[in-house]
Each structure stands twice: as structure tokens, then as C-alpha cells.
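Here we describe the complex-level prediction in full. Unlike the single-chain runs in Section 2.1, the two entities below were treated as one system.
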Amino acid sequence: MPPTILVADDSTTMRMIVKSVLSEAGWQVLAASNGKEALDLAQTSPVDLVVSDWNMPVMGGRDLIEGLRRQPQYEDLPVLVLTTEEDAISKSAARDLGVNGWLNKPLDPEVLVELAAELLGAAPQG
Amino acid sequence: MSSGLDLSQFYETFFDEADELLAQMEQLLLELDVQAPDIEQLNAIFRAAHSIKGGAATFGCFQKLAETTHLLENLLDAIRRGEMALRVDMVDTFLETKDVLKSQLDAYRASEEPDDAVYERICAVLRQLAEEGPGGEHAAAAPAAAAAAPVPTPEPEPQPEPVVAAPVAAEPATAAASGDLPTRVHIRKVSEKDAASLLEEMGNLGHVLASDRSGGALTVWVQTSCSADDIEAVCCFIIDADQLQITREAPPAQAAAAPAENSIEQFEQAAATFAPQAAAPTAPAAPAAPAASAPAAASRPARAQQAPAADKESTSIRVGVEKVDQIINLVGELVITQAMLAQTASTLDPVLHDRLLNGMEQLERNARDLQESVMSIRMMPMDYVFSRFPRLVRDIAGKMGKQIELQTYGRATELDKSLIERIIDPLTHLVRNSLDHGIETPEKRVAAGKDPVGQLVLSAQHNGGHIVIEVSDDGGGLSRERILKKALSQGMAVNENMPDEEVWQLIFAPGFSTAEQITDISGRGVGMDVVRRNIQDMGGHVQLSSVPGQGTTTRIILPLTLAILDGMSVRVGEETFILPLNHVTESLQPVEDQLYTVAGNERVMHVRGEYLPLVEMHRVFSVGGAQQDPTQAIVVIMQAEDRRFALLVDHLVGQHQVVVKNLEANYRKVPGISAATILGDGSVALIVDVFALARANREKWAQPEAILN
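The structure predicted for the assembly as a whole is:
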């Protein structure tokens, strides 16, 4: 079973691109259009990495990661934020939540794949 | 690991999404209360720009779109953060930007490069807005208000108020006096590249007062409300914590001067940065609205009746229309096959073939349900059309110095996609007419004892198999006198005693316009006739009602879909024709005394006090072998628009839902026939174009009463 990556982005285009970049790299990808959907998905199927946008309707990246962290199985889940936001407050909040990387759009597919590989290699796979 | 992913496969998704986002953005902008913008709305507008930029930049080949959205996004960001106060003219500019973005998007979609001049201009305007800061001169005049009201913040967490730092840049002494010492961030052993990013991060945190780069270390004095922890957190994306040292102290004098070369100017700019946002909530109305926005301010913002729909986040999939049409077509074939089987099965002995016949019944139910579900895929809410009008009304009202409030009802009412797209133009024309000729100027309205604000109401509702769309205004109403005068001058056959309904119908004549003054908005003489023709082409019709001094209501009545039709099949000679059921009012067998011959060999039929022209199907369509004697045949009374006529056929066959097949696509246009269908036995039947028959008849029977006398 290849590791599963959960992608959360409210933009359909971004979601599709990220999804196909990651699945072409050989991972299983689940996609959600906001934090709430992502949280729900993470309940039903175990996730090994989260790639999330920051500013999303309904539930943003911050609340998503917080919600994940509250669950024992996701305490140490690797998380990448992929966003256009660049403000320091958000970044610092992300760091406090144990986010492993902050990628700014425009997306560079190679960087994303590289980082994901690194994080998945280091993360316990279950 | 990453293969050369072909991003172009996502273009279409991006275009569609961006289209939707732009529409959303426009709606949100129009709903925005300039004096007290809702932070959630600002955030949603920002997010729309943000998503478009993110996508455009990722593809790397929509440069202009990416740059334009980038500039827009920056401004929106500053506004949602409360760093810049919103003004009416900004909303105007944003709306204009939205239009430019849309045209850029359309250009890219058509594989063209967007217009350079337009791009340059809008970018210049946006940059100008960003540079001039929030207020211009009037804002700088009120720096005292700065300390007053708290700035609304978009995020729940405590926000820094970077603007507070601005005046400090010029006069560090003030800051020191207030005990608000800047933060000194010292980072050891940092590369050139990291130093640049760190400096940028600091800039995001607050106001960088000074920086110093020596001995591989970077020292930054920054005025910020962020705690040392926050600063550390930010820097730790770039460097290790042990390289970092954070203290509070004033910057060295010479360093402080460095970033603020034109300190006076900067002070003024800085003052401008916070003055209006602080002033806006406390003094809502007058001073914040600059003179530049006068025309727009004159019109009360057009407001949709309903609050922003909560269903924006519903899950959906995107499917090409041709795929849906394909399914509809196939289901249509299935229904026809089912009908054929049913016809064959009906000849079987029900006792012997009990199970088969039960199965046939089941199949019929399933086929019908399937057809209904598939048809519902093509249905779209009227909101798709109505949502364009707040903008139009706002623009035109501003241009004409009128005050107009737009209300819409029945936004969720659904209509077939192909119809919804075709209704936009006629409806736009009607709305423009109301704005231009219907609703009066505020002065005129007040003089007539009316509210200076005119009401324009758009509504849509289902009524049987139809949708009724109304455009209604409380303006001056149509002038019977003027219409008659104009009609006379154009040589139309009119008389003083015509009923109102017939007078109103005159404005649908080609080339008819009563506008006293031709404006650039409507009244060019092409108009209502085109509106009516468009609507008739959709199988619908238009009704008008008007009361002088109280307003005009235009009602458009359309079938819900063009793909299936409830029809009555009739027999004429060897041919079967389908009459659209919604035009059939009754059928009866005429008796001799009901029939009168007039003017040559035309006949009329007297039905309950009304003389109806008799239209003989076999004559209209030259069908041989038909019943010639009306008393041996059947008459179907048809209603088209405001006209009724008696249609003579041999006999009625039955009622069914038929799948409409385009005749032009499969054969050619036939006068008097709107389409064709395939019957249960596999034969082709023609669907009668009731309006065409009524029109052909009306020309002959302009005034039946006159001829009768």
C-alpha cells in the first residue's frame, strides 16, 4: 500500500494539479475542498501526510491542523502548507502547530514531490 | 520523481473555476457595505482573487492575468487587514478590474493574448491606488483620529497594528517616550539570501525601522506588536533558534535615518495609512466618501433581495454540456424504444404474458424517472441570470443619475441551461428599458409624489410546465398617446379605441422606439422586436401591462425545457402531427351553424361568443386525403400569446411526452413546423409551431371584427 496523502485546497484547479502531481509520483491521494472535509476524510482513512492550503472557506488550514493534532494518531503527522499567504503571523501559527514546511504558490511540482518524499520517508508508515 | 506533468490539461478547469470566482467576486463587491465592510465578505473577495492568482501563476503562461490579480489581491489584502479603508471609488475600480480579468480570461481561453493597453492601464490604476494609500489628502488631515477606534481584524488571533509604527519611523523619540520600544532582532551567521528573506519577514511582522548587516550577522530593528516568540517562530522557518537573539531597544540614530529618507513624506503617508480606517467606523457617512465617486454614490447600492447564498460550498462535479446532451439524447432513444415495445406488447394476451407486461410497466416507470432525472441535470437556477443585474443596475443608475433599488425573487427557480443562456440578452434589454425609460429621475419622482428611489423587481416562478419571468418597475408607465402617435407616424394600422393590450403590443413592432431622447443605453430602435423574436424562438411569449404613473411589468413566459414536450398527437390524412399541449385549450366537433365563410374562402368559427379564425391543417401543410368537411372533423382551440384560433384536424390520437428532435439539424427548416419527434412505432411526426401559425393567421386577420362587419 503506498502512503496516503491528504490534499486540502478550496481551488478546484489547485486541488486537481496537486492531486495529479502527487499521484503520478506514486502516492495515494485524497482531496478535500476545505478543512472540514479534510478532517472528515482523515477520520475514515488513515493519512500519512497532509498538504493543505491555509486560507479556505468553512475551515481553514490552521483549524484543520489543530483538529488533526488533537487526535493521538495524528499527533506527529507531517504537514505541508501550500498557499499564497505569506504573512508572518500565519507562518508562526503554523510552526507552533508543528507544520513541517510552508510552500508558497505558484506551485513548483518538483519541490512538492521532493518535500513529500522526504517527509514520508521519515514518517512512520502505517 | 516528478514527471514533466502537462499542466495544460488543467486549463479548462482553471478557466471554469476562475469564471465562477470572478462572478462571485462581483456579487460580493456589489453586496459590500462600503462604510462598514463585513470582514467575512472581504475575506471571501480576497480569497477569490487569491485563488485565481495562485492558479494563473502556477501555470506560468497567464502572465497578465496573474499580475493583474496580484495587484488586486494586494489591495484587497490591505483592506481586509484594516490597513486601508474601503472607498466607493475603490469598489468601482475593483469591479472594473473584474471586467478586465474576465476579458483576459476569455482571451486566454481563446488562446489569444489579452489586450496590452487595457492591461497596462488597469495595472497603473491599481498601482496608483496602492501607492496613494488609503486616503489621499483628506485622510492625512485627520491623523488625530488614529488612536480612536480599533481596527477590525480579519483573523481571530491578535493582529499587530503595523500602522501604529509608521509615525515612529520618522520620530523614534516619540516611540521611546511612550515606552513603546522597537524590537531588535539579531541573527548570527546568516547567508545573503536568508538575510533578504528574514528582512522581508520582518517587514511582514511590522515596520522595519532599521537594519544592519555586518560580520555575517543581521540586525533588524522592527516596530511590532508581535512577541519575541512570534518573531522566533517566523525566523525558524529560515534559520535555527540558537542563531537568534531578540531584545528591545531603540535603533541607532544613523541607522534609523537610513530606511526613512524622506521622513516628512513618509510621515504623511503613514498618517494617511491609518487615518481613514480609524475614522470610518466612528464617522461613517460623509467625510470618507471622496468626491470622485459622486455618480456611483448617487445611486443607492443595488442590493439583491436574498442574503449571500449559503450553498456556495456544495459539492459538485463538472461535466461538459455535450456529455449531458448525449445522455439526454440516449435517454430519449430509450424512451422511444420503450414506447415501441409497449405498443407491440399491448397486442399480447395479458393473461398469457402477465410477467412480460408487468415488466413493461416497470420499464415505463423507470424510463420516465430516468428521463426526468437526466433532464434535471440541465436545469440551472435563474440566479445565473439574475446575478448579473445588480452590477448593470448600479452602473446604469450611476450613469443616469437615477436612484434605483433592485430586488430579485425566485433566484432558485430552475430553467433549462440552453434557455437560461438565451434569456440573458432579452432580459438585459428589458431591464435597460426600465432603467432608461421606465424609472424617472429622482426629481421627477419627488415631483410626482413618489419615493425618489425607484424600484426594479425581477422575479421568476414556475407555473405548470412554464417559467414566468417578470421585469417590473414603478416608473412612469407606458404612454398610450405617444405609442399611438408614433405608430401612426410609422404608418401602422391603429385606431384610438384599441384596447391597451393591443397598444402595448405595438412597441414590439420592428423599428419602434418612443424614447424622447436616444441615449447610449437603450432606445436605438432595435429592441423590443428583437426581444420578442428571441423569446418566440425559445417557444415563449411576452406580455406587457402598464399603468400610467405607476409602472410597467413585462412578463416572459417560457417552457421549462426544449428537449421534451408534452404534446397532443393529431391525425391529418395519413400524417401525424404533434400540438404542444400547453397551447391546447379545448377540442370540439363543430356544427354547421358555428361556421361562417368570410372574405373569399376563409372561414371563422363562432365559439361561445367569440369568432375564431379557422385554420385548416390539411390546407396549411398541403396534406392529401384529409377530411374536408369540418363537421366530420375535430377542431382544436389553440392559444398563442393573446390570440386564439381554431385548428382543424381529422381526429385526436392521444397525449404523450415527446422527445424533441431538431428538424433543421436533421433536415431543414419547415415553415409552420418547430421540430420533429419519433413516435412509438418508429415513424416521424412533425411538431406544429403554434406561434408561426398564429402569426401567419394574424397577418390575414389583422382585425377579424372589422372583416365580419
